[in-house]
Amino acid sequence: MWIIGVPELINRLESLLKDLMSQLGASEGTVFDAIGLSISGGSQPKMAENIKTQLKERCGSMFKTVACYTDTTGSVFTCADGGIVLIAGTGSNCELVHSDGSGDRCGGWGHFIGDEGSGCWITQKALKTVFDHMDNFVESPFPTDLVFYKMKDYFKVEDRNGMLDHFYNDFNKRHFAGFTGVLAELTVKNNDRLAQWCIA
């Protein structure tokens, strides 16, 4: 939600609700008792209220009430009455959720602050190591040539300057994190020590 913004989120939710109605074969005018949203940012009271208000304005005829929770809470209650959820994908998060909805979290603050263990974090670690080594700022503990070559191929750039677009003007979190897949291949197919170190 933080990356696409609330208006686009509402567009996608409306589309999902309409698809759900169609798949269920629900007759026109069917009203759900409740809609539960489990999304990133859902734990922020003002953000959650904004999302609920806009969704009601757009699709209020399709449900009686809407609840909004964070993505980790939804993951826990999908399969248990409380527990721990660990997310390690494009981003990362770890949260303990009790049966009453209270709990504690560790991480999950986004790619600017950390998201340790996530695809973004692993990619950033690899590229930062390459850039620092080439700048003679911090010597890499392992050869950087293969990761640098794969970076240019994956991001379709000729040199490090070409990466500035990917860092700033045209940052795509999913695509950026996807370079972790390339690093994973390097660990297996090439036994590349830098890739192994970044993923470990």
Short characterization:
With 200 residues, the chain is an alpha+beta fold.
3D structure, described in words:
The protein is an alpha+beta fold and 200 residues long. It is 50% helix and 15% strand. The chain is built from eight helices and five strands. It has helices spanning 6-24, 45-59, 71-79, 119-134, 145-155, 163-169, 173-189, 193-199, and strands at 32-38, 63-69, 83-88, 92-97, 103-106. The strands form two sheets. It has a three-stranded antiparallel beta sheet with strand order 3-4-5, with helices on one face. A two-stranded parallel sheet has the order 1-2. A hairpin with a 3-residue loop joins strand 3 and strand 4. Helix 4 (119-134) crosses helix 8 and helix 7 packs across helix 8 (193-199). The longest helix has 19 residues, at 6-24.
What is the strand and helix layout of this fold?
Blueprint: H1 6-24, E1 32-38, H2 45-59, E2 63-69, H3 71-79, E3 83-88, E4 92-97, E5 103-106, H4 119-134, H5 145-155, H6 163-169, H7 173-189, H8 193-199
Parallel strand pairs: 1-2
Antiparallel strand pairs: 3-4, 4-5
